[in-house]
């Protein structure tokens, strides 16, 4: 029987970068994100006795060896407690442009965890699902939940406390976001590899880990008080610290292109003129613009005309992962 689940992408306002345990995929820092309604992964899973191995179909095409192995390894983690040894066919579709350099691992592993939980009759709690999703990809732990979500780094060596927790649901403060696509080329170094290189080589890494505690506290406070300016300031601080850190790795990790830099300047210029907008950027060149409820339409018009931009995606804040 086929089970289908849906999950949304999320964008971190306080970034996750670095692992305290790369084997168990435990983050070195906590993070806070907002879940994006418009960016969805839909994943169907079908376990069948006659299959001799797992098959992964991503956006209509057979996935490459590396991706297929990552998904199989993840499914093994969920097959084990279910006592199931059969293989599955997994079909996963993103509604956002593929090859746009947008991380689909967050919505991808969250949807897969929810679909596999139902198909294997595990009946896991959302917290347990978040723990599993984290083992697939750190940011996926947050996509189990909607609204504003905090991922805890946890302290326990087994990672049982490295889970996400919903802070406020999507209706609490319906912030909006634009995603400005500056390049559709694949990023040269993925997050996993990039953060491991940073942890091993950057002299600033300990300061990054230490200073994240205060960013998390300030972000929690900004969201609780619905203080947009404070939220934007902390989000930019965390983002630029993360990129500064990545640039201090050896060899340096530079995820931006020229347009990324131009767009950062443009958002700063608009802000000076009174437009409430702040940027955040992940491990790629796309610029995400955070804005208060009702502000993204006019910014969409503005950026759609900006020279060099490939595409603009618009989203408000969305709900958690669920069986379809
Ligand atoms: C820059 O969750 O993709 O988007 O756990 O190795 O799969 P793995 O990393 P991943 O890293 C996300 C990094 C980030 C910041 C964030 O989403 O917090």
Description:
This protein is an alpha+beta fold and 324 residues long. The chain has two domains: 2-172, Ribosomal Protein S5, domain 2 (2-Layer Sandwich); 176-316, Alpha-Beta Plaits (2-Layer Sandwich). 38% of the residues lie in helices and 25% in strands. The chain contains nine helices and 14 strands. The strands form three sheets. Strands 1, 4, 5, 6, 7, 8, 9 and 14 form an eight-stranded mixed beta sheet that branches. β11 and β12 form a beta hairpin. α2 (105-119) packs across α3 (126-136) and α6 packs antiparallel against α7 (228-247). The mean pLDDT is 96.
Please specify the SSE layout and strand pairing:
Blueprint: E1 2-14, E2 19-21, E3 26-27, E4 31-48, E5 55-58, E6 61-62, H1 65-82, E7 87-94, H2 105-119, H3 126-136, H4 140-143, E8 148-151, E9 164-168, E10 176-181, H5 191-201, H6 205-224, H7 228-247, H8 258-272, E11 278-280, E12 287-291, H9 296-304, E13 311-316, E14 322-323
Parallel strand pairs: 5-7
Antiparallel strand pairs: 1-4, 1-14, 2-3, 4-7, 4-8, 5-6, 8-9, 10-12, 10-13, 11-12
The structure holds ligand DP6.
Ligand DP6 is lined by residues 12, 15-17, 25, 31, 103, 105, 137-139, 191-192, 282-283.
């Amino acid at each position: 029987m086929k089970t289908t689940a849906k999950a949304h992408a999320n964008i971190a306002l306080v970034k996750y970068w670095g692992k305290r345990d790369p084997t168990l995929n435990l983050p070195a820092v906590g993070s806070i994100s907002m879940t994006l309604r418009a960016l969805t992964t839909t994943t169907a899973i079908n376990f069948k006795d006659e299959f001799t191995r797992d098959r992964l179909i991503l956006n209509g095409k057979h996935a490459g060896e590396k991706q297929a192995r990552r998904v199989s390894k993840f499914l093994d983690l969920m097959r084990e407690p279910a006592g199931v040894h059969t293989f599955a066919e997994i079909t996963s579709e993103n509604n956002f442009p593929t090859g746009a350099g947008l991380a689909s691992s967050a919505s991808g592993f969250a949807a897969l965890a929810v679909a596999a939980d139902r198909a294997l009759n595990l009946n896991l709690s959302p917290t347990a699902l978040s723990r599993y999703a984290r083992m697939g990809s750190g940011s996926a732990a947050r996509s189990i939940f909607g609204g504003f979500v905090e991922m805890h780094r946890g302290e326990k060596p087994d990672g049982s406390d490295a889970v996400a927790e919903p802070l406020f649901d999507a209706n609490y403060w319906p912030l909006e976001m634009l995603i400005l696509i500056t390049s559709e080329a694949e990023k040269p170094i993925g997050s996993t590899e990039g953060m491991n290189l940073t942890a091993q080589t950057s002299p600033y890494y300990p300061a990054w880990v230490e200073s994240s505690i205060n960013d998390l506290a300030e972000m929690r406070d900004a969201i609780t008080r619905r203080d947009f300016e404070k939220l934007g300031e902390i989000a930019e601080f965390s983002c630029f610290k993360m990129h500064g850190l990545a640039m201090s790795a050896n060899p340096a990790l530079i995820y931006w292109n020229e347009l990324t830099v131009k767009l950062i300047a443009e958002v700063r210029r608009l802000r000076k003129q009174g437009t409430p907008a702040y940027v955040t950027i992940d491990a790629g060149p796309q610029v995400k613009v955070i804005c208060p409820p009702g502000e993204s339409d006019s910014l969409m018009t503005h950026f759609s005309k900006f020279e060099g931009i490939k595409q603009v995606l618009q989203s408000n804040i969305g709900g958690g992962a669920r069986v379809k």
